[in-house]
Write a structure and sequence with these properties.
Elements (H helix, E strand, L loop, with lengths): L2 H5 L5 E2 L3 E5 L5 H8 L2 H4 L10 H16 L6 E5 L5 E11 L4 E8 L8 H16 L4 E7 L3 H9 L3 E12 L2 E11 L1
Parallel strand pairs: 5-6
Antiparallel strand pairs: 1-2, 2-3, 3-4, 4-5, 6-8, 7-8
Length: 182
């Protein structure tokens, strides 16, 4: 299994309340609604989008990644509303080591609903069943208790703190590391 085999034909994956699918330019306004929110961008590596143009530029980058068969996110679509409410992806994949890391973001009006845990469990299962993964990990800033709770509810185990593990927005951040083993 390699990156091009999965990302050359990124499959649509469904769970009870969600559809994980390719992002399209039609998602720009929905994505901008959450990507421009400072509460959302507080615990991620990217700055809040300042304009719809920022969001369209990001989507263009994602579309190019799909075309180039590189790692790229699934858009998370809420079945009931039909709206794009976030993204989830394997932000890195060490094919030779059978390990990967997931990352995710969700619109704040859906926080606390269990939807991100549902998406994470679905993507974790996909990784174990379709990508020959043995280990899947996730990291979050130590202050991001909501993301940590998603990891716990998705069945991941706490491994420790990576001190000054990432330089983001002008400062070093400590990260909590969680993982799940097949």
């Amino acid at each position: 299994m390699n990156v091009k085999e999965i990302y050359g034909r990124l499959p649509t994956i469904e769970s009870e309340r969600l559809v994980m699918r390719k992002v399209t330019m039609n998602d720009a306004e929905g994505m901008f609604a959450y990507a421009s929110n400072r509460k959302v961008s507080r615990f991620v590596t990217w700055e809040a989008h300042r304009s719809l143009c920022d969001t369209k530029d990001f989507i263009q980058f994602v579309l190019q990644s799909y075309e180039d068969q590189k790692i790229a996110p699934w858009g998370i679509q809420h079945k009931e509303s039909g709206k794009l409410i976030g993204t989830i992806d394997f932000v890195s994949w060490q094919v030779n080591h059978h390990s990967a890391e997931i990352g995710y973001v969700l619109a704040p009006e859906y926080w606390g609903s269990g939807l991100m845990t549902e998406a994470a469990k679905t993507i974790i299962a996909f990784g174990f069943e379709n990508m020959n993964l043995v280990r899947i990990q996730a990291r979050c800033f130590v202050e991001n208790l909501a993301s940590e709770r998603v990891m716990q509810k998705a069945g991941m185990s706490f491994e420790g703190i990576i001190r000054k593990g990432m330089f983001v927005k002008g400062k070093h951040e400590d990260l909590k590391l969680y993982s799940i083993i097949k």
